[in-house]
Amino acid sequence: MKEKVEEIMTRDVITATVDETVLNIATVLKENSIAGVPVVNDRKEVVGVLSVSDILKLLDDFHWYTPFFSAMDLSHLHSDELENVKRDIEEVSEMRVKDAMSKNPKTIAQDTLIDDAAQIMYSTGFNRLPVLDGKGKLVGIVARADIITSLCDL
Amino acid sequence: MQAETVVKVRDLMTTAVIAFKPSDKVHQVAKTLRTNQISGAPVIDDQRKVIGVISEADIMKLTATVPFPDIDPLNPFPVFSLTSYRKKVEKIPAEIETLFEGSVKDVMTKDPVTISPDDSILAATRIMHKDDFNRIPVVDDEGKLVGLIARADIISLFVQ
Description:
The structure holds two protein chains of two kinds. By secondary structure, chain A is of the alpha+beta class. Chain A is built from seven helices and six strands. In chain A, the strands form two sheets. Chain A has a three-stranded antiparallel sheet. Chain A has a three-stranded mixed sheet with strand order 4-5-6. Helices cover 36% and strands 15% of the residues of chain B. Chain B has eight helices and five strands. Chain B has a three-stranded antiparallel sheet. In chain B, strand 4 (135-139) and strand 5 (145-150) form a beta hairpin. The model of chain B is unreliable at 66-71 and 88-92 (pLDDT under 50).
């Protein structure tokens, strides 16, 4: 039976760097069917995470969340409102990863027990945990799916 | 898709939706989610009406419901080790297996938020962000499943 995260983690981690754009990352997420990536510096240290949720939050910070907005309104969408939507998407697309990412990500050591990783995911609500080696460098990533697969193999 | 062509949920939703029955086993669900690289799916009855949603998060919750007598009430982030607990109480592995052999209907989130194909993408995005849902089943006037809109689909707004 597998016990440590290093036995179930993905080792070829798709990562982002701080100076890429949100559009770069959106493309990577879509092409790889993943929902988030760790952001690393040139020393392979994890400085943040950028996920679909973070991108959603950015859109929400712009014009989209208005108390007067309803499905009815949208059927009569005016061209200026559509312009706002287009502009918001363009603005978010051009943002740099360092300004869009969640900072202070939760990371775990590679000898962490799978059960403990499950508890961390449950308590924090994070869907993916970057895995670090003894020197604090990224060596893998564990997602919820990996943990569930391993628990089901009891 | 550029924003000027994207207005409604129907423009971005997935129509070939994987859905489960209330009698399906959690074990099966976990495998199906994994194979299809999705993190959750709607649960439908015989008439295709949406009665729930089951996600990886719901399955993860199962592992946290097994009672542990040693939890320190002052510890805000109780981190438990199932492995060491198992060594103390032999019965626990069987309990966990039972949980994973359980049915979808006991684990799913019931009466989920749903949306119509004619609702705006913006309304869907707002629900997802505000209510923290990853996916919203798309239903017709009778509440029958016609599609699914998820956070990952929002990415299509950026990338063609």
